[in-house]
UniProtKB/TrEMBL annotation:
Key words of the record: Endoplasmic reticulum, Membrane, Transmembrane, Transmembrane helix
Organism domain of life: Eukaryota
Source species: Acanthosepion pharaonis
InterPro entries per record: Reticulon, RTN1-4
UniProt name for this protein: Reticulon-like protein
Pfam families according to UniProt: Reticulon (PF02453)
Topology of the protein relative to the lipid bilayer: Multi-pass membrane protein
Transmembrane regions: 100-128
Length: 171
Protein backbone atom coordinates (compact mmCIF):
# COMPACT_ATOMS: atom_id res chain seq x y z
CA UNK A 1 0.00 0.00 0.00
CA UNK A 2 2.82 2.39 0.88
CA UNK A 3 4.55 1.57 -2.40
CA UNK A 4 1.38 2.42 -4.33
CA UNK A 5 0.99 5.73 -2.48
CA UNK A 6 4.62 6.68 -3.10
CA UNK A 7 4.15 5.78 -6.76
CA UNK A 8 1.07 8.00 -6.92
CA UNK A 9 3.12 10.85 -5.48
CA UNK A 10 5.57 10.57 -8.36
CA UNK A 11 3.55 9.25 -11.32
CA UNK A 12 0.07 9.83 -12.68
CA UNK A 13 -2.82 7.64 -11.58
CA UNK A 14 -3.11 6.14 -15.07
CA UNK A 15 0.58 5.16 -15.10
CA UNK A 16 0.40 3.60 -11.64
CA UNK A 17 -2.71 1.57 -12.56
CA UNK A 18 -1.11 0.44 -15.82
CA UNK A 19 2.15 -0.60 -14.12
CA UNK A 20 0.33 -2.43 -11.32
CA UNK A 21 -1.86 -4.24 -13.83
CA UNK A 22 1.18 -5.17 -15.89
CA UNK A 23 2.95 -6.49 -12.77
CA UNK A 24 -0.07 -8.60 -11.80
CA UNK A 25 -0.40 -9.93 -15.35
CA UNK A 26 3.32 -10.81 -15.41
CA UNK A 27 3.06 -12.73 -12.14
CA UNK A 28 -0.07 -14.66 -13.12
CA UNK A 29 1.23 -15.40 -16.63
CA UNK A 30 4.55 -16.64 -15.23
CA UNK A 31 2.76 -18.83 -12.68
CA UNK A 32 0.48 -20.30 -15.37
CA UNK A 33 3.42 -21.09 -17.67
CA UNK A 34 5.35 -22.60 -14.72
CA UNK A 35 2.38 -24.83 -13.80
CA UNK A 36 1.93 -25.92 -17.43
CA UNK A 37 5.62 -26.86 -17.67
CA UNK A 38 5.44 -28.75 -14.36
CA UNK A 39 2.32 -30.63 -15.55
CA UNK A 40 4.08 -31.58 -18.80
CA UNK A 41 7.24 -32.76 -17.01
CA UNK A 42 5.41 -34.66 -14.28
CA UNK A 43 2.67 -35.84 -16.66
CA UNK A 44 -0.07 -34.80 -14.22
CA UNK A 45 -3.50 -33.50 -15.09
CA UNK A 46 -4.01 -30.87 -12.41
CA UNK A 47 -5.73 -28.48 -14.79
CA UNK A 48 -5.79 -24.70 -14.76
CA UNK A 49 -4.06 -23.25 -11.63
CA UNK A 50 -6.62 -20.44 -11.33
CA UNK A 51 -9.71 -22.58 -11.99
CA UNK A 52 -11.13 -21.95 -8.51
CA UNK A 53 -10.91 -18.17 -9.00
CA UNK A 54 -12.31 -18.33 -12.53
CA UNK A 55 -15.43 -20.07 -11.19
CA UNK A 56 -16.20 -17.47 -8.52
CA UNK A 57 -19.54 -15.69 -8.93
CA UNK A 58 -18.52 -12.04 -9.21
CA UNK A 59 -21.72 -10.64 -10.67
CA UNK A 60 -23.62 -8.12 -8.61
CA UNK A 61 -27.22 -9.03 -8.05
CA UNK A 62 -30.00 -6.65 -7.09
CA UNK A 63 -30.10 -7.71 -3.44
CA UNK A 64 -26.36 -7.12 -2.87
CA UNK A 65 -26.42 -3.84 -4.75
CA UNK A 66 -29.46 -2.50 -2.91
CA UNK A 67 -27.99 -3.49 0.45
CA UNK A 68 -24.74 -1.62 -0.27
CA UNK A 69 -26.54 1.41 -1.72
CA UNK A 70 -28.84 1.63 1.33
CA UNK A 71 -25.82 1.50 3.66
CA UNK A 72 -23.95 4.17 1.66
CA UNK A 73 -27.04 6.40 1.54
CA UNK A 74 -27.58 6.00 5.29
CA UNK A 75 -24.02 7.19 6.00
CA UNK A 76 -24.22 9.93 3.36
CA UNK A 77 -27.48 11.30 4.81
CA UNK A 78 -26.11 11.24 8.36
CA UNK A 79 -23.00 13.11 7.22
CA UNK A 80 -25.01 15.72 5.33
CA UNK A 81 -27.32 16.25 8.35
CA UNK A 82 -24.32 16.70 10.66
CA UNK A 83 -22.61 19.14 8.26
CA UNK A 84 -25.84 21.11 7.92
CA UNK A 85 -26.12 21.25 11.71
CA UNK A 86 -22.52 22.46 12.03
CA UNK A 87 -22.54 24.99 9.18
CA UNK A 88 -25.92 26.47 10.12
CA UNK A 89 -24.88 26.80 13.79
CA UNK A 90 -27.59 24.73 15.41
CA UNK A 91 -25.31 24.32 18.43
CA UNK A 92 -22.88 27.20 18.99
CA UNK A 93 -20.25 25.15 20.85
CA UNK A 94 -20.14 22.37 18.25
CA UNK A 95 -19.92 24.87 15.40
CA UNK A 96 -17.07 26.71 17.11
CA UNK A 97 -15.23 23.40 17.62
CA UNK A 98 -15.82 22.56 13.97
CA UNK A 99 -14.51 25.97 12.95
CA UNK A 100 -11.38 25.45 15.04
CA UNK A 101 -10.87 22.05 13.43
CA UNK A 102 -11.19 23.60 9.97
CA UNK A 103 -8.75 26.35 10.97
CA UNK A 104 -6.19 23.75 12.12
CA UNK A 105 -6.70 21.84 8.87
CA UNK A 106 -5.82 24.97 6.87
CA UNK A 107 -2.43 25.04 8.60
CA UNK A 108 -1.88 21.33 8.11
CA UNK A 109 -2.86 21.74 4.45
CA UNK A 110 -0.32 24.51 3.98
CA UNK A 111 2.46 22.30 5.37
CA UNK A 112 1.72 19.14 3.36
CA UNK A 113 0.11 18.20 0.09
CA UNK A 114 -2.67 15.62 -0.06
CA UNK A 115 -0.51 12.68 -1.06
CA UNK A 116 1.94 13.33 1.80
CA UNK A 117 -0.97 13.36 4.24
CA UNK A 118 -2.30 10.08 2.85
CA UNK A 119 1.14 8.43 3.05
CA UNK A 120 1.64 9.68 6.61
CA UNK A 121 -1.86 8.45 7.54
CA UNK A 122 -1.11 4.96 6.23
CA UNK A 123 2.17 4.81 8.14
CA UNK A 124 0.44 6.04 11.32
CA UNK A 125 -2.44 3.57 10.97
CA UNK A 126 0.02 0.67 10.89
CA UNK A 127 2.45 1.93 13.56
CA UNK A 128 0.21 3.48 16.23
CA UNK A 129 -1.38 0.19 17.34
CA UNK A 130 2.06 -1.32 17.98
CA UNK A 131 3.26 1.80 19.81
CA UNK A 132 0.10 1.81 21.93
CA UNK A 133 0.45 -1.89 22.67
CA UNK A 134 4.06 -1.37 23.80
CA UNK A 135 3.48 1.79 25.89
CA UNK A 136 -0.18 1.27 26.89
CA UNK A 137 0.20 2.15 30.58
CA UNK A 138 2.16 5.36 30.02
CA UNK A 139 -0.11 6.53 27.18
CA UNK A 140 -3.25 5.85 29.24
CA UNK A 141 -1.81 7.82 32.17
CA UNK A 142 -0.97 10.82 30.00
CA UNK A 143 -4.35 10.70 28.25
CA UNK A 144 -6.13 10.64 31.62
CA UNK A 145 -4.11 13.66 32.79
CA UNK A 146 -4.82 15.54 29.55
CA UNK A 147 -8.53 14.69 29.73
CA UNK A 148 -8.79 15.93 33.32
CA UNK A 149 -6.96 19.17 32.44
CA UNK A 150 -9.21 19.70 29.43
CA UNK A 151 -12.33 19.13 31.54
CA UNK A 152 -11.09 21.64 34.16
CA UNK A 153 -10.45 24.27 31.51
CA UNK A 154 -13.81 23.58 29.86
CA UNK A 155 -15.61 23.98 33.20
CA UNK A 156 -13.82 27.27 33.87
CA UNK A 157 -14.70 28.63 30.43
CA UNK A 158 -18.33 27.50 30.74
CA UNK A 159 -18.65 29.07 34.19
CA UNK A 160 -17.43 32.41 32.83
CA UNK A 161 -19.36 32.18 29.55
CA UNK A 162 -22.70 30.51 30.35
CA UNK A 163 -24.02 30.82 26.77
CA UNK A 164 -21.48 28.17 25.69
CA UNK A 165 -23.08 25.46 27.81
CA UNK A 166 -24.75 22.73 25.82
CA UNK A 167 -28.51 22.68 26.07
CA UNK A 168 -30.11 19.42 27.12
CA UNK A 169 -31.83 17.84 24.14
CA UNK A 170 -35.51 17.05 24.51
CA UNK A 171 -36.20 13.35 24.40
Amino acid sequence: MLFILLSLAIFSVLSVIAYLSLAILSVTLSFRVYKNIMQAVQKSGEGHPFKEYLEWDIELNDAKTQKVVKLVMKHFNATVRELRRLFLVEDLVDSIKFGLLLWVLTYIGSWFNGMTLIINSVVIVFTLPKIYETYKVQIDNYLAMARSQFNKILQQVQSKLPFLKKKAKAQ
